[in-house]
Amino acid sequence: MIALIDYGAGNLTSVRKALAAIGAAVWTPTVPGELARAHGIIVPGVGHFDATRALGDEWRQAIRVSIDDETPLLGICVGLQWLFEGSTEAPGVDGFGAFKGTCFNFSEYVSRPLKVPHVGWNSLSMPRSSRLMAGIAEGTQVYFTHSYAAPVIDETVALCDYGVPFSAAVEHGHISAVQFHPEKSGDAGLQVLHNWIRTV
Amino acid sequence: MLSKRIIACLDVRDGKVVKGINFEGLRDAGDPAALARRYNTEGIDELVILDVTATMESRQARAHTIAAVAREIFLPLAVGGGIRSEEDAAAAIEAGADKVSLNTAALNQPELITTLAHRYGSQAVVIAIDAKREADRYAVYVRSGQSGTTRDAVEWAREATNRGAGEILLTSIDRDGTKSGFDCEMTAAVSDAVNIPVIASGGAGTFEHFADVFTSGRADAALAASIFHFNEKSVSELKRFLHARGIPVRI
Protein backbone atom coordinates (compact mmCIF):
# COMPACT_ATOMS: atom_id res chain seq x y z
CA MET A 1 0.00 0.00 0.00
CA ILE A 2 1.14 3.51 -0.91
CA ALA A 3 0.58 6.31 1.59
CA LEU A 4 -0.47 9.50 -0.20
CA ILE A 5 0.02 12.27 2.33
CA ASP A 6 -2.74 14.87 2.26
CA TYR A 7 -1.55 17.99 4.06
CA GLY A 8 -4.15 20.25 2.48
CA ALA A 9 -2.02 21.55 -0.39
CA GLY A 10 -4.33 21.18 -3.32
CA ASN A 11 -6.27 18.38 -4.79
CA LEU A 12 -5.17 14.75 -4.89
CA THR A 13 -7.80 13.35 -7.28
CA SER A 14 -5.49 13.36 -10.30
CA VAL A 15 -2.61 11.66 -8.47
CA ARG A 16 -4.97 9.01 -7.09
CA LYS A 17 -6.45 8.38 -10.53
CA ALA A 18 -3.04 7.99 -12.19
CA LEU A 19 -1.85 5.59 -9.48
CA ALA A 20 -5.03 3.56 -9.87
CA ALA A 21 -4.44 3.43 -13.62
CA ILE A 22 -1.06 1.75 -13.09
CA GLY A 23 -2.53 -0.64 -10.54
CA ALA A 24 -1.18 0.84 -7.29
CA ALA A 25 -3.22 0.61 -4.08
CA VAL A 26 -3.26 3.95 -2.28
CA TRP A 27 -4.60 5.33 0.97
CA THR A 28 -4.40 8.65 2.76
CA PRO A 29 -3.08 8.28 6.31
CA THR A 30 -4.80 10.47 8.87
CA VAL A 31 -2.13 10.25 11.58
CA PRO A 32 1.67 9.93 11.23
CA GLY A 33 1.67 6.55 13.00
CA GLU A 34 -0.05 4.97 9.97
CA LEU A 35 3.10 5.49 7.89
CA ALA A 36 4.66 2.49 9.61
CA ARG A 37 2.60 0.19 7.39
CA ALA A 38 3.33 2.05 4.11
CA HIS A 39 5.31 0.26 1.40
CA GLY A 40 5.88 3.59 -0.27
CA ILE A 41 5.15 7.23 0.57
CA ILE A 42 4.12 10.04 -1.77
CA VAL A 43 4.35 13.69 -0.75
CA PRO A 44 2.32 15.58 -3.38
CA GLY A 45 1.46 19.26 -3.36
CA VAL A 46 0.51 22.21 -5.49
CA GLY A 47 0.38 25.80 -4.43
CA HIS A 48 2.37 27.56 -1.74
CA PHE A 49 5.44 26.24 0.10
CA ASP A 50 3.92 27.61 3.30
CA ALA A 51 1.33 24.79 3.17
CA THR A 52 4.11 22.30 4.02
CA ARG A 53 4.00 23.78 7.54
CA ALA A 54 1.20 21.26 8.06
CA LEU A 55 3.87 18.55 7.85
CA GLY A 56 4.87 19.18 11.44
CA ASP A 57 7.40 17.43 13.65
CA GLU A 58 5.35 14.25 14.07
CA TRP A 59 4.97 13.75 10.32
CA ARG A 60 8.64 14.56 9.73
CA GLN A 61 9.66 12.08 12.39
CA ALA A 62 7.42 9.35 10.96
CA ILE A 63 8.74 10.01 7.44
CA ARG A 64 12.32 9.90 8.73
CA VAL A 65 11.69 6.52 10.40
CA SER A 66 10.17 5.16 7.18
CA ILE A 67 13.15 6.35 5.16
CA ASP A 68 15.53 4.69 7.62
CA ASP A 69 13.52 1.51 7.02
CA GLU A 70 14.24 1.98 3.30
CA THR A 71 10.63 2.76 2.41
CA PRO A 72 10.69 4.51 -1.00
CA LEU A 73 9.50 8.12 -0.96
CA LEU A 74 8.35 10.20 -3.94
CA GLY A 75 7.85 13.96 -3.80
CA ILE A 76 5.77 15.68 -6.49
CA CYS A 77 5.92 19.42 -7.32
CA VAL A 78 5.87 21.27 -3.97
CA GLY A 79 6.64 17.81 -2.54
CA LEU A 80 9.99 17.96 -4.38
CA GLN A 81 10.66 21.47 -3.12
CA TRP A 82 9.89 20.42 0.45
CA LEU A 83 12.61 17.74 0.26
CA PHE A 84 15.17 20.56 -0.17
CA GLU A 85 16.27 22.79 2.71
CA GLY A 86 13.68 25.49 2.12
CA SER A 87 12.25 27.97 -0.32
CA THR A 88 12.38 31.74 -0.68
CA GLU A 89 8.57 31.46 -1.03
CA ALA A 90 8.27 30.88 2.72
CA PRO A 91 11.62 31.76 4.36
CA GLY A 92 10.39 30.85 7.85
CA VAL A 93 9.43 27.29 6.89
CA ASP A 94 12.12 24.61 6.93
CA GLY A 95 12.15 21.97 4.23
CA PHE A 96 12.78 18.32 5.06
CA GLY A 97 16.42 18.75 4.04
CA ALA A 98 16.99 15.45 2.23
CA PHE A 99 18.58 17.45 -0.59
CA LYS A 100 20.93 20.45 -0.34
CA GLY A 101 19.83 23.83 -1.58
CA THR A 102 17.04 26.38 -1.40
CA CYS A 103 14.22 26.74 -3.93
CA PHE A 104 14.08 30.02 -5.82
CA ASN A 105 11.52 32.04 -7.78
CA PHE A 106 11.94 32.10 -11.57
CA SER A 107 11.36 35.88 -11.44
CA GLU A 108 14.88 36.24 -10.03
CA TYR A 109 16.33 34.94 -13.32
CA VAL A 110 13.68 35.12 -15.99
CA SER A 111 12.51 38.09 -18.02
CA ARG A 112 10.19 38.67 -20.97
CA PRO A 113 9.12 36.99 -23.14
CA LEU A 114 9.23 34.25 -20.48
CA LYS A 115 6.38 34.47 -18.00
CA VAL A 116 6.17 33.34 -14.41
CA PRO A 117 4.66 30.88 -13.52
CA HIS A 118 6.25 28.31 -15.81
CA VAL A 119 3.18 26.56 -17.18
CA GLY A 120 3.12 23.91 -19.86
CA TRP A 121 5.16 21.19 -21.50
CA ASN A 122 8.93 21.47 -21.38
CA SER A 123 11.69 19.08 -22.31
CA LEU A 124 13.94 17.06 -20.04
CA SER A 125 17.59 16.18 -20.25
CA MET A 126 19.11 13.41 -18.19
CA PRO A 127 22.60 14.06 -16.81
CA ARG A 128 22.86 10.43 -15.69
CA SER A 129 20.84 7.24 -15.59
CA SER A 130 18.40 6.61 -12.74
CA ARG A 131 15.69 4.20 -11.70
CA LEU A 132 13.08 6.96 -11.73
CA MET A 133 13.70 8.16 -15.28
CA ALA A 134 14.43 4.74 -16.83
CA GLY A 135 13.06 4.50 -20.36
CA ILE A 136 12.42 8.26 -20.64
CA ALA A 137 14.20 9.53 -23.74
CA GLU A 138 16.30 12.69 -23.81
CA GLY A 139 14.05 15.58 -24.89
CA THR A 140 10.82 14.03 -23.63
CA GLN A 141 8.32 16.73 -22.67
CA VAL A 142 6.38 16.73 -19.42
CA TYR A 143 3.85 19.10 -17.83
CA PHE A 144 4.97 21.74 -15.33
CA THR A 145 3.08 24.40 -13.42
CA HIS A 146 5.13 26.29 -10.82
CA SER A 147 6.75 29.61 -9.95
CA TYR A 148 9.48 28.21 -7.69
CA ALA A 149 12.12 25.64 -8.58
CA ALA A 150 14.92 23.66 -7.00
CA PRO A 151 18.56 24.14 -8.01
CA VAL A 152 20.52 21.56 -9.99
CA ILE A 153 22.52 19.36 -7.59
CA ASP A 154 24.56 16.15 -7.72
CA GLU A 155 21.38 14.12 -7.19
CA THR A 156 19.58 15.73 -10.16
CA VAL A 157 18.56 12.95 -12.55
CA ALA A 158 16.48 15.08 -14.94
CA LEU A 159 16.93 18.74 -15.59
CA CYS A 160 14.89 21.33 -17.36
CA ASP A 161 15.62 24.87 -18.47
CA TYR A 162 13.35 27.89 -18.18
CA GLY A 163 15.68 30.83 -18.43
CA VAL A 164 17.67 29.05 -15.73
CA PRO A 165 18.39 25.32 -15.33
CA PHE A 166 16.52 23.61 -12.50
CA SER A 167 15.94 20.12 -11.09
CA ALA A 168 13.04 18.36 -12.84
CA ALA A 169 13.79 15.13 -10.98
CA VAL A 170 16.13 14.11 -8.15
CA GLU A 171 17.03 10.69 -6.79
CA HIS A 172 19.15 9.59 -3.87
CA GLY A 173 18.84 6.09 -2.51
CA HIS A 174 15.17 5.53 -1.72
CA ILE A 175 14.24 9.19 -1.95
CA SER A 176 13.09 10.56 -5.29
CA ALA A 177 11.08 13.53 -6.45
CA VAL A 178 9.79 15.24 -9.56
CA GLN A 179 8.97 18.89 -10.14
CA PHE A 180 6.67 18.11 -13.09
CA HIS A 181 3.27 16.47 -12.75
CA PRO A 182 3.63 12.80 -13.77
CA GLU A 183 -0.14 12.40 -13.35
CA LYS A 184 -0.67 15.07 -16.03
CA SER A 185 2.17 14.22 -18.41
CA GLY A 186 0.54 11.57 -20.57
CA ASP A 187 2.37 8.29 -21.20
CA ALA A 188 5.77 9.65 -20.12
CA GLY A 189 4.33 10.62 -16.74
CA LEU A 190 2.70 7.24 -16.21
CA GLN A 191 6.06 5.61 -17.07
CA VAL A 192 7.81 7.63 -14.33
CA LEU A 193 5.13 6.65 -11.79
CA HIS A 194 5.44 3.06 -12.90
CA ASN A 195 9.24 3.19 -12.48
CA TRP A 196 8.80 4.45 -8.94
CA ILE A 197 6.11 1.89 -8.06
CA ARG A 198 8.51 -0.86 -9.16
CA THR A 199 10.92 0.20 -6.39
CA VAL A 200 8.16 -0.16 -3.78
CA MET B 1 12.24 25.14 -24.34
CA LEU B 2 8.67 25.64 -23.16
CA SER B 3 6.23 24.48 -25.83
CA LYS B 4 3.28 26.42 -27.12
CA ARG B 5 0.21 24.46 -26.06
CA ILE B 6 -2.57 23.27 -28.32
CA ILE B 7 -5.77 22.94 -26.33
CA ALA B 8 -8.98 21.32 -27.49
CA CYS B 9 -12.24 22.63 -26.15
CA LEU B 10 -15.15 20.30 -25.65
CA ASP B 11 -18.27 22.43 -25.56
CA VAL B 12 -20.66 20.19 -23.68
CA ARG B 13 -24.41 20.35 -23.30
CA ASP B 14 -26.40 17.61 -21.58
CA GLY B 15 -23.36 15.34 -21.63
CA LYS B 16 -22.80 15.72 -25.41
CA VAL B 17 -20.17 17.74 -27.25
CA VAL B 18 -21.62 20.56 -29.30
CA LYS B 19 -20.13 23.57 -31.07
CA GLY B 20 -21.93 26.55 -32.43
CA ILE B 21 -21.15 29.52 -34.63
CA ASN B 22 -21.01 32.73 -32.58
CA PHE B 23 -22.45 30.78 -29.65
CA GLU B 24 -25.68 30.03 -31.49
CA GLY B 25 -27.08 27.10 -33.46
CA LEU B 26 -25.31 24.36 -31.50
CA ARG B 27 -24.43 21.22 -33.45
CA ASP B 28 -23.95 17.71 -32.04
CA ALA B 29 -20.39 16.41 -32.31
CA GLY B 30 -20.40 13.43 -30.01
CA ASP B 31 -19.36 11.80 -26.79
CA PRO B 32 -16.87 13.79 -24.66
CA ALA B 33 -14.90 10.76 -23.45
CA ALA B 34 -14.59 9.37 -27.00
CA LEU B 35 -13.32 12.72 -28.24
CA ALA B 36 -10.91 13.03 -25.30
CA ARG B 37 -9.46 9.62 -26.18
CA ARG B 38 -8.97 10.61 -29.79
CA TYR B 39 -7.29 13.86 -28.85
CA ASN B 40 -4.97 12.10 -26.44
CA THR B 41 -3.83 9.74 -29.21
CA GLU B 42 -3.26 12.69 -31.52
CA GLY B 43 -1.07 14.53 -29.02
CA ILE B 44 -3.32 17.27 -27.67
CA ASP B 45 -1.61 19.10 -24.77
CA GLU B 46 -4.63 19.95 -22.68
CA LEU B 47 -8.42 19.77 -22.65
CA VAL B 48 -11.10 22.22 -21.62
CA ILE B 49 -14.62 21.08 -20.91
CA LEU B 50 -16.94 24.02 -21.35
CA ASP B 51 -20.46 23.48 -20.09
CA VAL B 52 -22.13 25.81 -22.59
CA THR B 53 -25.60 25.62 -21.17
CA ALA B 54 -24.71 25.29 -17.52
CA THR B 55 -27.92 26.92 -16.38
CA MET B 56 -29.79 23.91 -17.69
CA GLU B 57 -27.43 21.32 -16.26
CA SER B 58 -26.91 20.43 -12.65
CA ARG B 59 -23.54 20.36 -10.89
CA GLN B 60 -23.91 16.59 -10.66
CA ALA B 61 -24.32 16.08 -14.41
CA ARG B 62 -21.22 18.21 -14.97
CA ALA B 63 -19.26 16.14 -12.46
CA HIS B 64 -20.30 13.01 -14.32
CA THR B 65 -18.92 14.36 -17.63
CA ILE B 66 -15.68 15.50 -15.96
CA ALA B 67 -15.15 12.11 -14.34
CA ALA B 68 -15.81 10.29 -17.63
CA VAL B 69 -13.16 12.40 -19.42
CA ALA B 70 -10.68 12.36 -16.52
CA ARG B 71 -10.74 8.56 -16.49
CA GLU B 72 -9.57 8.51 -20.11
CA ILE B 73 -6.72 10.98 -20.13
CA PHE B 74 -3.71 11.96 -18.03
CA LEU B 75 -3.39 15.50 -19.28
CA PRO B 76 -4.29 18.85 -17.74
CA LEU B 77 -8.06 19.24 -17.70
CA ALA B 78 -9.87 22.53 -17.18
CA VAL B 79 -13.59 22.95 -16.65
CA GLY B 80 -15.68 26.03 -17.24
CA GLY B 81 -19.29 27.07 -17.60
CA GLY B 82 -21.53 27.43 -14.60
CA ILE B 83 -18.75 27.66 -11.99
CA ARG B 84 -20.42 30.29 -9.81
CA SER B 85 -19.25 29.54 -6.31
CA GLU B 86 -16.51 27.93 -4.28
CA GLU B 87 -18.76 24.84 -4.01
CA ASP B 88 -19.16 24.58 -7.81
CA ALA B 89 -15.37 24.80 -8.19
CA ALA B 90 -14.80 22.22 -5.47
CA ALA B 91 -17.24 19.80 -7.10
CA ALA B 92 -15.51 20.15 -10.49
CA ILE B 93 -12.05 19.69 -8.97
CA GLU B 94 -13.10 16.70 -6.90
CA ALA B 95 -14.56 15.12 -10.04
CA GLY B 96 -11.12 15.32 -11.68
CA ALA B 97 -10.63 18.84 -13.06
CA ASP B 98 -7.17 20.36 -12.53
CA LYS B 99 -8.32 23.88 -13.26
CA VAL B 100 -11.60 25.72 -13.15
CA SER B 101 -12.38 28.49 -15.55
CA LEU B 102 -14.43 31.40 -14.21
CA ASN B 103 -16.15 33.93 -16.39
CA THR B 104 -19.32 35.75 -15.27
CA ALA B 105 -18.83 34.71 -11.64
CA ALA B 106 -15.36 36.29 -11.51
CA LEU B 107 -16.71 39.61 -12.77
CA ASN B 108 -19.61 39.53 -10.31
CA GLN B 109 -17.52 38.40 -7.33
CA PRO B 110 -13.84 39.04 -8.06
CA GLU B 111 -12.96 37.90 -4.52
CA LEU B 112 -13.84 34.35 -5.65
CA ILE B 113 -10.57 34.36 -7.67
CA THR B 114 -8.56 34.94 -4.50
CA THR B 115 -10.58 32.44 -2.46
CA LEU B 116 -9.99 29.69 -5.02
CA ALA B 117 -6.32 30.62 -5.53
CA HIS B 118 -5.77 30.24 -1.78
CA ARG B 119 -7.61 26.95 -1.58
CA TYR B 120 -6.27 25.23 -4.71
CA GLY B 121 -3.33 27.38 -5.87
CA SER B 122 -3.28 29.94 -8.69
CA GLN B 123 -2.50 27.22 -11.24
CA ALA B 124 -6.05 25.92 -10.70
CA VAL B 125 -7.74 29.24 -11.49
CA VAL B 126 -8.30 30.25 -15.12
CA ILE B 127 -10.14 33.47 -15.89
CA ALA B 128 -12.13 33.28 -19.11
CA ILE B 129 -12.66 36.60 -20.82
CA ASP B 130 -15.05 36.89 -23.76
CA ALA B 131 -14.37 40.16 -25.56
CA LYS B 132 -15.55 42.05 -28.59
CA ARG B 133 -13.93 44.99 -30.38
CA GLU B 134 -15.74 48.24 -29.73
CA ALA B 135 -14.64 51.73 -30.73
CA ASP B 136 -11.64 52.25 -28.47
CA ARG B 137 -11.55 49.10 -26.35
CA TYR B 138 -11.96 45.35 -26.13
CA ALA B 139 -15.34 45.15 -24.42
CA VAL B 140 -15.88 42.30 -22.00
CA TYR B 141 -19.11 40.33 -22.43
CA VAL B 142 -20.73 37.85 -20.08
CA ARG B 143 -23.47 35.23 -20.13
CA SER B 144 -22.03 33.40 -23.17
CA GLY B 145 -21.49 36.62 -25.06
CA GLN B 146 -25.02 37.91 -24.58
CA SER B 147 -24.51 40.80 -22.16
CA GLY B 148 -22.07 43.68 -22.44
CA THR B 149 -20.19 45.11 -19.47
CA THR B 150 -18.28 48.29 -18.86
CA ARG B 151 -15.02 46.39 -18.49
CA ASP B 152 -12.08 46.35 -20.90
CA ALA B 153 -10.35 43.00 -21.49
CA VAL B 154 -6.81 44.30 -20.91
CA GLU B 155 -7.70 46.06 -17.69
CA TRP B 156 -9.78 43.12 -16.41
CA ALA B 157 -7.00 40.62 -17.23
CA ARG B 158 -4.61 42.72 -15.18
CA GLU B 159 -6.97 42.89 -12.22
CA ALA B 160 -7.70 39.15 -12.37
CA THR B 161 -3.96 38.43 -12.36
CA ASN B 162 -3.45 40.63 -9.31
CA ARG B 163 -6.26 38.82 -7.54
CA GLY B 164 -4.57 35.45 -8.04
CA ALA B 165 -5.56 34.08 -11.45
CA GLY B 166 -3.11 31.57 -12.94
CA GLU B 167 -4.06 31.81 -16.61
CA ILE B 168 -6.25 33.90 -18.91
CA LEU B 169 -8.46 32.25 -21.51
CA LEU B 170 -9.24 35.02 -23.98
CA THR B 171 -12.02 34.48 -26.53
CA SER B 172 -12.77 36.84 -29.37
CA ILE B 173 -16.53 36.93 -29.79
CA ASP B 174 -16.06 38.57 -33.21
CA ARG B 175 -14.01 35.60 -34.43
CA ASP B 176 -15.58 32.70 -32.54
CA GLY B 177 -16.76 30.00 -34.95
CA THR B 178 -15.90 32.07 -38.04
CA LYS B 179 -12.60 30.29 -38.90
CA SER B 180 -11.21 33.65 -40.03
CA GLY B 181 -8.23 33.61 -37.64
CA PHE B 182 -7.56 34.54 -34.02
CA ASP B 183 -7.71 38.19 -33.01
CA CYS B 184 -3.92 38.52 -32.73
CA GLU B 185 -3.96 42.19 -31.88
CA MET B 186 -6.27 41.72 -28.92
CA THR B 187 -4.35 38.62 -27.75
CA ALA B 188 -1.04 40.49 -27.87
CA ALA B 189 -2.52 43.43 -25.95
CA VAL B 190 -3.64 41.13 -23.12
CA SER B 191 -0.52 38.95 -23.21
CA ASP B 192 1.71 42.01 -22.89
CA ALA B 193 -0.33 43.33 -19.97
CA VAL B 194 0.00 40.28 -17.70
CA ASN B 195 2.77 37.96 -16.56
CA ILE B 196 0.65 34.80 -16.61
CA PRO B 197 -0.03 32.57 -19.63
CA VAL B 198 -2.68 33.67 -22.10
CA ILE B 199 -4.71 31.11 -24.05
CA ALA B 200 -6.09 32.50 -27.31
CA SER B 201 -9.48 31.32 -28.48
CA GLY B 202 -11.97 32.08 -31.22
CA GLY B 203 -11.39 32.01 -34.96
CA ALA B 204 -9.05 29.07 -35.64
CA GLY B 205 -9.55 27.96 -39.24
CA THR B 206 -6.13 27.15 -40.69
CA PHE B 207 -2.69 26.06 -39.44
CA GLU B 208 -1.45 29.50 -40.42
CA HIS B 209 -3.83 31.06 -37.89
CA PHE B 210 -2.12 29.14 -35.08
CA ALA B 211 1.33 30.22 -36.26
CA ASP B 212 0.11 33.82 -36.31
CA VAL B 213 -1.33 33.80 -32.79
CA PHE B 214 1.87 32.25 -31.37
CA THR B 215 4.05 34.88 -33.07
CA SER B 216 2.31 38.23 -33.55
CA GLY B 217 -0.41 37.35 -30.99
CA ARG B 218 2.20 36.37 -28.36
CA ALA B 219 -0.16 33.67 -27.08
CA ASP B 220 1.18 30.95 -24.77
CA ALA B 221 -1.48 28.49 -25.87
CA ALA B 222 -4.23 28.30 -28.44
CA LEU B 223 -7.60 26.71 -28.09
CA ALA B 224 -9.90 25.37 -30.75
CA ALA B 225 -12.99 23.21 -30.96
CA SER B 226 -14.80 22.72 -34.26
CA ILE B 227 -11.63 22.66 -36.36
CA PHE B 228 -10.65 19.45 -34.58
CA HIS B 229 -14.02 17.85 -33.77
CA PHE B 230 -15.16 17.22 -37.32
CA ASN B 231 -11.82 15.81 -38.44
CA GLU B 232 -11.19 18.87 -40.56
CA LYS B 233 -7.65 19.15 -39.22
CA SER B 234 -5.71 16.82 -37.00
CA VAL B 235 -3.77 17.95 -33.96
CA SER B 236 -0.69 15.96 -35.01
CA GLU B 237 -0.60 17.59 -38.47
CA LEU B 238 -0.96 21.00 -36.87
CA LYS B 239 1.98 20.31 -34.56
CA ARG B 240 4.19 19.13 -37.41
CA PHE B 241 3.33 22.32 -39.28
CA LEU B 242 4.20 24.55 -36.30
CA HIS B 243 7.41 22.61 -35.64
CA ALA B 244 8.49 23.15 -39.26
CA ARG B 245 7.85 26.86 -38.72
CA GLY B 246 10.24 26.88 -35.77
CA ILE B 247 7.49 27.24 -33.16
CA PRO B 248 8.19 24.99 -30.14
CA VAL B 249 5.52 22.32 -29.68
CA ARG B 250 5.31 18.91 -28.02
CA ILE B 251 5.55 16.28 -30.73
Question: How is this structure best described in words?
Answer:
The complex is a heterodimer of chains A (200) and B (251). Chain A has 200 residues and is of the alpha/beta class. Chain A has helices at residues 13-21, 57-68, 78-82, 186-199, and strands at 2-4, 26-27, 40-43, 73-76, 86-87, 102-105, 118-123, 141-146, 148-149, 156-161, 165-172, 175-178. In chain A, the strands form 3 sheets. Chain A has a 7-stranded mixed sheet with strand order 2-1-3-4-12-11-10. In chain A, strands 5-6-9 form a 3-stranded mixed sheet, with no helix packed on it. A two-stranded antiparallel sheet of chain A has the order 7-8. In chain A, strand 3, helix 2 and strand 4 form a beta-alpha-beta unit. The mean pLDDT of chain A is 94. Chain B has 251 residues and is α/β, with parallel strands linked by helices. In chain B, 36% of the residues lie in helices and 29% in strands. Chain B has helices at 32-42, 59-70, 86-95, 104-108, 111-120, 153-162, 184-193, 207-215, 226-229, 235-244, and strands at residues 5-13, 16-21, 24-30, 46-51, 77-80, 99-102, 125-134, 137-142, 147-152, 167-172, 198-201, 221-224. Chain B has an 8-stranded parallel barrel, surrounded by 7 helices. In chain B, helix 7 (184-193) links the parallel strand 10 (167-172) and strand 11 (198-201). The longest helix of chain B is centred in the N-terminal third of the chain and has 12 residues, at 59-70. Chain B is globular, with a radius of gyration of 16 Å. Residues 20-27 of chain B have low confidence and may be disordered. Chain A binds chain B through residues 9-11, 13-14, 17-18, 21, 46-48, 113-123, 141, 143, 145-146, 161-162, 181, 183-187, 189-190, and chain B through 1-5, 40, 45, 70-71, 74-76, 93-96, 98, 120-124, 166-167, 195-197, 218, 220-221, 250.
Low-confidence stretches of chain A: none
Q: Give the oligomer, counting copies of the same chain as homo and different chains as hetero.
A: heterodimer
How are helices and strands ordered from N to C of chain A? EHEEHEHEEEEEEEEH
Q: Shape of chain B from CA axes?
A: globular
